[in-house]
Prior knowledge:
Blueprint: H1 10-15, H2 19-25, E1 29-34, H3 36-41, H4 43-52, E2 55-58, H5 64-67, H6 77-88, E3 92-95, E4 99-100, H7 106-114, H8 118-128, E5 136-143, H9 159-164, H10 168-179, E6 184-189, H11 197-215, E7 222-225, E8 228-230, H12 239-251, E9 255-264, H13 272-291, E10 296-301, H14 334-345
Parallel strand pairs: 1-2, 1-10, 2-3, 3-5, 4-5, 5-6, 6-7, 7-9, 8-9, 9-10
Bound molecules: (3S,4R)-3-hydroxy-2-oxopiperidin-4-yl beta-D-xylopyranoside (XIL).
Residues 59, 143, 190, 226, 260, 310 line the site of (3S,4R)-3-hydroxy-2-oxopiperidin-4-yl beta-D-xylopyranoside.
Amino acid sequence: MLASAAAVPLLGFARDEAMKERAGRAGMLFGAAVRASELRQDAAFRAAITRECSVITPELELKWAWLEPERGQLSFTDADQIASFAASTGKAMHGAALLWHLSIAPWAAESLADKPDWMIVRRFIASVIPRYGEVTSTWDVINEPMDMGHRVDGLRPSPYLAAFGPDYIRRALEDARLFAPKARLFINEFGLDYDFPVERDKRYLLLKLLEGLKKSGTPIDGLGMQAHLELGKQDHFDPKVLAQFFNDVGSLGLEIRISELDVKEADGTLPTAARDARVADAVRRYLDVAMANRAVGTIGCWGLSDRYSWLESPGDKIGLNRGLPLDSALRPKPMYHAISEAYGIRGG
Ligand code: XIL
């Protein structure tokens, strides 16, 4: 007879466990953004990613400006390295991001401003998506389409909007589906987490956008919540407001990925333990809401360790921002445990 799970002493079991195992038991994924250069140069970091993550997101390497700096000269070396690392370690890769105003290749932006030719966009989508079809089952097709204060629909002025109007979103999703029939397609957005007027408006208008896409039968499978939390904004964190938004998105039949979780600190002069406790507390409060909604299936951080963080340090003298799960020596911090415990809510 097989040993029953109940015979395993749970505490000791959980202590040595990697995050991806806890996530897996909860029926979920745990991910982080990585760079090819980090994986190449840093064996200890590579081991940490290997151990902890079930999905990895190339931080830069799939973006248009990176892949095709000159028209027609695609260079897949770095993206291929991340993809084969993912494949050889049994991880999924998340594709980020096809259309993002900040990562459009400069030649493409110029060309679209000159002549709005959708074939330029389609050629890019067609050259990238199928190459990673085996390892990449989720794509951010549009990144950060919203920006308040410009238009009544809340869409961000961008080279894509200027060239094709609001319909660029539908077109990109249709093309992504065409070239990746099995992949789940996402819109990824930031600034949706707090109870400020501008974030309230953004949530409302993004919901309208998602609703419209669903109604018109446009292929969209989910929303990526970037979840770049900020300790300076925590007074405006309202779990009820966030829960309502998750419910609204889930009610449209959409999946939710927590796609870029990290925490920007506000006060780097506090003792380290207090800083880490604040970061973990913000994450715990957020994930309590996220875990209560079955539409949420992935928690991804924008980096795994403070060793490689895009977050700026909160002041000159106190060194790194401590807003990622592992410290710069790759040791788990309270934020790591907050995520791990969140999986516990779902049985992980
Ligand atoms: C960031 C990278 O981490 C930086 O290294 C780069 O300079 C700018 O982009 N939202 C996103 C990510 O969707 O692609 C961004 O990544 C962070 C904010």
